[in-house]
Design a protein that fits this description.
The chain is an alpha/beta fold and 364 residues long. The protein has ten helices and 14 strands. Strands 3-4-5-10-11-12-13-14 form an eight-stranded parallel beta barrel, surrounded by five helices. Strands 1-2 form a two-stranded antiparallel ribbon. Helix 1 runs parallel beside helix 2 and helix 6 runs parallel beside helix 7. The chain is globular and about 55 Å long. The relative contact order is 0.15. The chain binds P-hydroxybenzoic acid (PHB).
């Protein structure tokens, strides 16, 4: 099929051969202890190197940023070594790769936290959500998240510094870019939403104050790497992880203006309908487009048809595919040839080994 999806695009200082992005996907296979990217992840990502850009699974910027079993980190020397092997494999196969920088905030459980402490958030509010820890049998088990404790104002500079450090380590590990994860009900989104943020300091109250932590985290990344190498992901109106993002449109528009001022390489919008949220209106898409002139990546339940329509409408410039990329390492070719897609095996999404990870077949 002829579609703008298969045409090149400039992203930062790179030219992507197509506009099909591998979305960040949590797979929970990091080596324990230490949350080190596993050797099998080299094969997994290398298999997907024909994507215009691979965005890594979300990777915690500190031990406190962890919220699920066996997710990889980007704060230790061992993790940098592990990632280096991954980026080398991807580059050797002709691909490009960004890393997603993650702090889960309250989407965690004390058993995953340093010294079994409570997870942190904007405010100490109970909420309904589950996360995944390692059961006694070594298999993923779902548990209720703890009610978090509120971050003290004096703890925030250290938190911000961890975004700077993680960006430095990402460069050292050979990534082509970093993506700040400010979506999906994780820490930065918890600060954005008036529902989860009841703070009375400069990080709470007005919309500008609630956006502050997101922008300071972004600026911390930008203090470690220039704007050509930094993108961000947000999910306006997203309800994933029990978040209520009722003024998400106003927040999204404000953030887009601030991203524009910083000339970051891309704005990645995760559309809420993939997780049971609303479908974004065309009006909102247009308003976001008018505020941000860099590359916009759309994500969430994308098909080739949706990607083509959204790019032709001018709302986005590239499309990220998540679940289809789990099951189709050669997704670009399959879409181009109109070939059938392999079905996913959701019971193998999280944890485990090669099965459901590197064993999905390529087209003959
Ligand atoms: C997940 O583990 O299900 C997950 C992680 C990060 C996201 C979304 C989902 O941004």
């Amino acid at each position: 099929m002829s579609s703008p999806v298969f045409t090149p695009i400039t992203l930062g200082n790179m030219t992507l051969p197509n506009r099909i992005i591998m979305a960040p996907l949590t797979r929970m296979r990091a080596v324990q202890p230490g949350d080190i990217p596993a050797p099998i992840s080299q094969t997994y990502y290398e298999q997907r190197a024909t994507a215009g850009l691979i965005i890594s699974e979300a990777s915690q910027i500190s031990p406190q940023g962890k919220g699920y079993m066996a997710t990889p980190g980007i704060y230790s020397a061992e993790q940098v070594q592990g990632w280096k092997s991954v980026t080398q494999a991807v580059h050797k196969a002709g691909g490009r790769m960004a890393i997603q920088l993650w702090h889960v905030g309250r989407v965690s459980h004390h058993s995953l936290q340093p010294n079994q402490q409570l997870p942190v958030s904007a405010s100490a509010l109970p909420y309904e959500n589950k996360t995944t820890i390692m059961g006694a049998d070594g298999k993923p088990t779902r548990v209720a998240c703890d009610t978090p404790r509120a971050l003290e104002t004096h703890e925030i500079p250290e938190l911000i510094a961890s975004y700077h450090k993680a960006t430095e380590l990402s460069r050292e590990a050979g990534f082509d870019m970093v993506e700040v994860h400010a979506a999906h009900g994780y820490l930065l989104h918890q600060f954005q939403s008036a529902e989860s943020n009841h703070r009375t300091d400069i990080y709470g109250g007005s919309l500008e104050n609630r956006a502050r932590l997101t922008l300071e985290a972004l600026d911390a990344s930008l203090s470690a790497w220039d704007a050509q190498h930094v993108g961000i992901r947000i999910s306006p109106l997203g309800i994933f992880n029990g978040l209520n993002d009722r003024d998400g449109e106003a927040m999204g528009l404000y953030l887009a203006e601030e991203f524009q001022k910083r000339k970051i390489a891309y704005l990645h919008i995760s559309e809420p309908d993939w997780a049971g949220g609303p479908v974004l209106s065309d009006e909102f898409r247009k308003a976001m487009r008018s505020r941000f002139s860099g590359v916009i990546i759309g994500a969430g339940n994308y098909t080739l048809e949706k990607a083509t329509r959204m790019i032709e409408s001018g709302y986005i410039d590239a499309a990220a595919f998540g679940r289809p990329y789990i099951a189709n390492p050669d997704l670009v070719r399959r879409l181009q040839e109109g070939a059938a897609l392999n079905p996913t095996r959701p019971e193998l999404f999280y944890g485990g080994n090669e099965e459901g990870y590197t064993d999905y077949p390529f087209l003959a």
